[in-house]
Amino acid sequence: MFDRVPDRYDLVNAVVTLGLDKRWRKLAVRACLERGPRRILDICTGTGDLAVALAEAADERSEIVAADFSAPMLEEARHKAEGTGLARRVELARVDAAALPFEDGAFDAVGVSFGFRNLTYKNKNRDLHLSEIARIVAPEGRFVIVESSQPSSSVFRAGFRLYLGAWVKTMGGLVSGQRGAYRYLARSARDFYEPREVEQLLLDAGFAEVTTTPLLAGAAALHVASK
Description:
Helix content: 40-55%
Strand order of the largest sheet: 3-2-1-4-5-7-6
Largest sheet: 7 strands, mixed
Order of helices and strands: HHEHEHEEHHEHHHEE
Number of helices: 9
Structural class: alpha/beta
CATH class: Alpha Beta
Radius of gyration: 16 Å
Mean pLDDT: 89
Oligomer: single chain
Distance between the termini: 32 Å
CATH superfamily: Vaccinia Virus protein VP39
CATH topology: Rossmann fold
Shape: globular
CATH architecture: 3-Layer(aba) Sandwich
Number of strands: 7
């Protein structure tokens, strides 16, 4: 599915989030870099937005790896890194999240920007994905997630779900030409875990502490899990 949408992926993200995805991604960058990590992984990098933002903000000595399962997405990420003059700062890696080719504790920080849902929502490999990520995070390292969430207000939640069905599914399909992909994205956002459920998944995977910051009244959230 993701192999079919890379050329329109950034445009659609901007349309369906009203441009807020960039602001939220900056919060993830700040959380990833707070402890001065030397090795950082952007998993499910897609077209590389988080990886490029990390490269722009991180210390020159930091190593940044952008990883994804989709070769066309990684190609878009390569073009983006080259276009911003940051290609030398971002190493691209095609990986399977269920069998990450990295040593235990290889990264001081791992970030994921709107890809965590794909690793966990009705995914038979959910627990394996989470255990693999926990394995490669160094002691005292962080796993930072910015993702859609569930608003606590029943009124706002009802409006959010209407928005997902009427706007995200429809406009995403029209702009990208891939209606099936955006039906999935809208449905998975609508039915995704509550914040407390995400926290419990991360604790069960081996993280010691998880903090959650609601964004846009809970329509999205920033989760920071510490090893």
